[in-house]
Amino acid sequence: MGRDNWKIIRDRISADISGGQLEPGMQLPTESQLCQTFQAGRHSVRRAVAALAVEGKLRVEQGRGTFVQAAPLISYHIGRRTRFRQNLLEQGVSPAGEQLADSIVVAPAAVAAALSLPEGSAVHRLLRRGLADGVPISIGLSYHCATRFPDLGARRSAGESVTDIYRSHGIPDYFRKSTTIFTRRPTEDEASLLMQHPDQPVVVMQKTDVDAGGLPIGYSEAVWAGDRVQFTFDNQDEGPEAPESARGV
């Protein structure tokens, strides 16, 4: 091998992943074993592994080893009525969500504006992680008026869906008013929670939900693993309300 040793190693490992010889979750041989297999130096092996980690094909766990990333590619549809749980169930993927933190804080200026609240209003601040077949795909930071939904934090911690909580407060349905999307590099904590390489970009989605009367009821900023989700925007209004079993987490 010549100066591009690492590229050859990268491409051969990538081909083994695509061809199924290296299956999701499988642990790669040790660095020394890879050096022997490819008749290459440690620098070339490390560079190839790092490149595949950035592409989202490998996951390096300190003290454990390197593993093939078992991450499903989710096609996430965004329309007026967008639900995390429904999106995943329709693709045969098991959705799950876990609450990482919740508190009541003074609404930041941007949040107060998005929710049409006076400055200084108290809001629930919830941090959650979304998973698809057990693999992290998003981290969501959401805000809701603490006066209108006084029990929201506790009920979300107990596992209730936001749809059920809204309904108990007289909101039978809700819609997405606006969506803003951009990309950036993740913070160290975000990369850790998403179990991805810190150089792999994330997709940031900011959205505001409203009730049937157009009054803002929720604002959130979600950070998505860029290599695990692709987004489709639905231009037409959606049909009848989805059944309760398929509604939002």
UniProtKB/TrEMBL annotation:
This is Phosphonates metabolism transcriptional regulator PhnF. Keywords: DNA-binding, Transcription, Transcription regulation. The keyword Heme does not apply. InterPro entries: Bact_HTH_transcr_reg, Chorismate_lyase_/UTRA_dom_sf, CP_lyase_PhnF, Tscrpt_reg_HTH_GntR, UTRA, WH-like_DNA-bd_sf, WH_DNA-bd_sf. It comes from the Bacteria. It holds the Pfam family GntR. Transmembrane segments: none annotated. GO terms for molecular function: DNA binding; DNA-binding transcription factor activity. Residues 3-71 form the HTH gntR-type domain. It comes from Frigidibacter mobilis. PANTHER family: MANNOSYL-D-GLYCERATE TRANSPORT/METABOLISM SYSTEM REPRESSOR MNGR-RELATED (PTHR44846), MANNOSYL-D-GLYCERATE TRANSPORT_METABOLISM SYSTEM REPRESSOR MNGR-RELATED (PTHR44846:SF1). One of its GO terms (biological process) is negative regulation of DNA-templated transcription.
